[in-house]
Specification:
Strand content: under 5%
Distance between the termini: 58 Å
Number of strands: 2
Number of helices: 5
Shape: flat
Length: about 150
């Protein structure tokens, strides 16, 4: 539903003084409709032209976005220092005069768990028992000081 139809359904008339549009009249509604169609056309043209410009830039080898703060060699050195635990992330950041977040952005993500991770010991059978309690029953923690 459009804004104009929603306003008309609720009995609200729109009066634009500068353009002389009054949606309570037939002519005003027609003008409002034409202006909304033109605004939608303009928006779609802007989107299409932006997408065409980006595609053209990519075809010329241009890449959008900000340039990386660290070169590939600096990122590789940071990765090596981090992996070998020679320096902390803060020390690496200070070395290249960048914030820690930049260093974290260039570090490789940790690898997922191995295929056969070490399994935790099995639970005792009484832990896996299901108990039904009436509503409002308070439960206490046993065996630990909290």
């Amino acid at each position: 539903m459009t804004l104009g139809a929603d306003l008309r359904e609720r009995g609200i008339g729109l009066h634009v003084i500068e353009q002389g549009i009054d949606t309570s009249t037939m002519e005003g509604r027609a003008m409002f409709g034409m202006l909304s169609v033109l605004a939608e056309l303009q928006r779609e043209l802007i989107v299409a032209n932006t997408n065409d410009g980006l595609a053209s830039a990519r075809a010329r080898g241009r890449v959008g976005g900000r340039r990386p703060k660290l070169t590939e060699d600096q990122a590789a050195l940071a990765q090596r220092l981090h992996d070998q635990r020679e320096k902390t992330v803060q020390q690496i950041a200070d070395m290249f005069s960048v914030p820690r977040s930049t260093v974290y952005g260039h570090l490789e993500r940790p690898r997922p768990c191995p295929a056969n991770p070490r399994r935790p010991p099995p639970r005792s059978p009484e832990i896996n028992q299901r108990v039904t309690l009436p509503l409002g029953t308070e439960l206490g923690v046993r065996g630990r000081d909290r």
